[in-house]
Design goal:
By secondary structure, this protein is an alpha/beta fold. Helix content is 40%, strand content 23%. Helix 4 (84-93) links the parallel strand 4 and strand 5. It is globular, with a radius of gyration of 20 Å.
Length: 358
């Protein structure tokens, strides 16, 4: 029987770390050996301490002290995208495999650093747009398309609309603080675009050739202040001739379900429809005057394996089997190229070619 992979958790300022940490804690091939929270947020430090206590391990303020003391072989990083590439490079230099929060980088240079590092060191790297490949309905659809069920793919359409904006978006005060401090903010195209772009690339079976994008802050004053978008419409052309259109953003809707994700794949021999709501059981109950965000009177739990558990399992299996994970550093690089072309298109009003280094 194999020894479990020694894993560390670094960064609790983003919501996905709780899911990834829980999946690692529950996995028979993983052993959590330490936790670190290097940020200034007391809430994040409290979450890190609580999880460390739950695991029976030490919580460090300095992630490198954790790495030196516990010598993990894999880490789950949930850090701001502008800091992430340098940390990934240092982890790779130590021979440590990386499961990264999304987005993995703030710009193309950061994504290129990650990809170059992974190529040079051979570590396993994956990043947190798990639902793009591991949500059961999407995974089944990708398998069907790759198996030729719709023939030659011609046209794609998609939608990723996250809700509960008033709970999870930044406040006007926070937006002003970030502007005054010259701190970057991540818009919803960067935050959620990977869920669509990475699913599309699996359906198309080819990289993106060009992008056209229109975006704006339609719903939130705080987004306008911070200079980021809450909604975008993106059209893409792939090098094999496939064309695609998608809507990506965050709406003001306060109640469940927490996201509306749909795809359509039109091929030469059929059409495939994907609806993430089909993975949920809607449980209706009494209307509540309590939490304004959850008072709609129903819950919508998913059934079957959660995408983030399947994603973590794929990462651990990739380490044990010596193979690439489903989402790789090369996918992260293509995602960043697509994202930056979309931002340039939105700024210029023109179709922008995606540049690749041969």
């Amino acid at each position: 029987m194999r020894d479990p992979i020694r894993c560390a958790l670094i960064g609790f300022d983003y919501g996905h770390q709780g899911a990834f940490a829980t999946a690692l804690l529950d996995h028979p091939n993983a052993q959590i050996v330490g936790v670190a929270e290097p940020g200034a947020s007391e809430a994040a430090r409290a979450r890190a301490r609580e999880f460390a206590e739950r695991c029976g391990v030490r919580c460090y303020d300095d992630p490198w002290a954790l790495m030196d003391a516990e010598t993990p072989k894999a880490v789950s990083l949930c850090l701001p995208p502008e800091r992430n590439p340098a940390v990934v490079a240092e982890m790779a230099a130590r021979g440590v495999h990386v499961l990264s929060e999304k987005p993995p980088a703030a710009d193309l240079a950061g994504a290129e650093l990650i990809a170059d590092t992974v190529r040079e060191t051979g570590i396993r790297f994956t990043f947190g747009f798990h639902a793009a490949r591991f949500a059961p309905s999407v995974a089944r659809a990708i398998g069907a398309v790759r198996g030729g069920r719709v023939g030659e793919v011609r046209v794609l359409s998609g939608m990723y609309l996250q809700v509960k904006g008033p709970r999870y978006t930044i406040s006007v005060e926070e937006a002003r603080r970030r502007v005054e401090a010259e701190e970057p903010s991540v818009g919803e195209l960067a935050n959620f675009g990977g869920y669509v772009f990475l699913a599309f690339s699996a359906f198309a079976g080819a990289p993106v050739k060009s992008v056209y994008c229109e975006q704006d802050a339609f719903f939130y004053d705080s987004y306008r202040i911070a200079g980021i978008e809450d909604l975008a419409v993106v059209s893409l052309e792939y090098v094999n001739g496939v064309v695609a259109t998608c809507v990506i953003g965050r709406t003001p809707t306060k109640s469940l379900p927490n996201a509306d994700v749909r795809f359509e794949v039109i091929g030469s021999e059929g059409v495939l429809h994907v609806n993430s709501l089909a993975e949920r059981i809607f449980v209706y109950g009494d209307f509540s005057d309590g939490d304004q965000f959850d008072r709609g009177g129903f819950e919508a739990p998913t059934y079957g394996p959660q995408s983030w558990r399947l994603y973590v399992d794929d990462f651990l299996c990739a380490i044990l089997e010596g193979r690439d994970p489903e989402l790789t550093a090369e996918d992260a690089l293509e995602y960043q190229r697509t994202l930056e072309a979309a931002y340039e298109s939105a700024a210029t009003g023109r179709v922008v070619a995606v540049q690749y280094v041969q």
